[in-house]
Write a structure and sequence with these properties.
Distance between the termini: 51 Å
Order of helices and strands: HEEHHHEEEEHEEHEEEEEHHHHHEEH
Strand content: 15-25%
Shape: elongated
Strand order of the largest sheet: 5-4-3-6-2-1-7-8
Number of helices: 12
Length: about 400
């Protein structure tokens, strides 16, 4: 992904004059030879660059690229430190090879081989086209990764919304094939490229360009077996931090499905985690959707989240947006709001007792339900009961059971 971003950026700056061609990344595997190959058509590397960027694991090629082009490029487009990340390949591979051909004119292809120890071999390669192939020779105790379904699952989880197309072989699809004698449509099975990712996810688009159907379709893309959500909030802020995303209020079942359909955290469309505690307030942990922020690093840790000022600001911003949305729904269509209260009441009540900033706004739209099914806001309920529930000190008493 990083080198694909590089080559596009260099072309836009006029520093690469060649034909970019299709920039699809290919992932393939050979079960018999026990190999997994990831191939791109990015900037490629010379032998010297491989030594510099791959062998010096503490060095970040992305960082140097940003420094070199900081006056020309948007550094937010360049993410990751691929030194240490690259070496995670040895968690499943007994040997890793790199075949690469640099974008530089007259460059010689390079072939790097390493078994995970401190020594490596580098020699002339055989790659004919610009780009890089990374070949993992899978270890015996990791052969599960040579199963198609296992690889597909990993790609779906971690690469679902990467901004560069990723192809994982082919898949079968049904297409129209004329009509039969009775005039009914016929279909045939054809093979098409299996592009596993959506490079232009909904949260990257302007809310003004979207319809309700778009939000519902994206929800089904995230959670195919879930019921339609009650409503949603489109997050979009670029100061004092960068944050985009879509949060959905689901219909809650009695068991709340705690381990299912979590909020997914991304950084520039790269999946980080679905454990968003500290980023999202506790009372909103049951929401669904996506949050994307370049201000959260890829190597995110719990200790980082607890101390980072941007994370605290994001937490506060999400709280405010949710409160504003609920207030808007309450004022715009109270009857509809009341009909959803059995689902959203859980969030509102928990937020009231756990988040001071949310409590300030939630007092306007929190509801209580009487025995006869009538809903009241706090002020309405106080007026409704004060004649019969005022004590000798002239204070209105609210029986706790009436607030449940």
């Amino acid at each position: 992904f990083y080198v694909k971003t590089h080559i596009k950026r260099l072309a836009s700056l006029g520093e690469y004059k060649g034909d970019l061609g299709a920039l699809t990344i290919d992932v393939s595997f050979d079960k018999k030879k026990k190999k997994i190959t990831v191939s791109d058509k990015g900037i490629g590397m010379t032998a010297d660059e491989i030594k510099k960027y791959i062998n010096q694991i503490a060095f970040s090629g992305a960082s140097e690229f940003v420094e070199k082009y900081k006056d020309k490029a948007d550094e937010q487009q360049i993410i990751g430190h691929f030194g240490l990340g690259f070496y995670s390949a040895f968690m499943v591979a007994k040997k890793v090879e790199i075949q690469s051909l640099s974008r530089e004119e007259g460059a010689e292809p390079a072939h790097w081989i390493c078994d995970g120890e401190t020594e490596f071999e580098i020699k002339k390669g055989n790659k004919k086209e610009r780009g890089t192939d990374i070949i993992l020779h899978i270890a015996e105790d990791s052969e599960e990764f040579l199963e198609e379904n296992r690889l597909q699952g990993i790609l779906d989880k971690y690469s679902k919304f990467l901004p560069i197309p990723i192809r994982f072989g082919q898949k079968e699809e049904q297409v129209e094939d004329g009509e039969d004698k009775e005039g009914k449509k016929k279909y045939k099975t054809v093979k098409v490229d299996n592009i596993i990712n959506n490079t232009d996810p909904l949260w990257t688009k302007s809310p003004n360009d979207l319809k309700d159907e778009d939000y519902l379709a994206f929800y089904k893309e995230l959670y195919p077996f879930a019921e339609d959500p009650l409503f949603w909030i489109h997050l979009n802020v670029d100061y004092p931090f960068n944050l985009t995303g879509i949060l959905y209020f689901p219909k809650l079942k009695k068991n709340f499905e705690f381990q299912k359909n979590k909020i997914q955290l991304y950084s520039r469309q790269v999946f980080i985690t679905d454990e968003v505690k500290d980023i999202v307030p506790d009372f909103l942990q049951l929401l669904h959707g996506v949050i994307d922020s370049p201000d959260i690093p890829l190597n995110v840790s719990r200790s980082y989240l607890q101390s980072d000022s941007n994370v605290k600001k994001i937490n506060g911003y999400i709280t405010k947006k949710v409160a504003d949305k609920l207030g808007e729904l309450y004022k715009k269509d109270r009857k509809s709001y009341e009909s959803k209260w059995s689902d959203i009441g859980v969030f509102v009540k928990y937020g009231l007792i756990s988040e001071d900033k949310f409590e300030e706004k939630a007092k306007e739209f929190v509801l209580v339900k009487s025995i006869d099914g009538t809903y009241y806001n706090i002020d309405e309920y106080k007026k409704h009961v004060e004649a019969n529930q005022t004590n000798k000190d002239k204070s209105v008493v609210f029986p706790y059971s009436a607030l449940i």
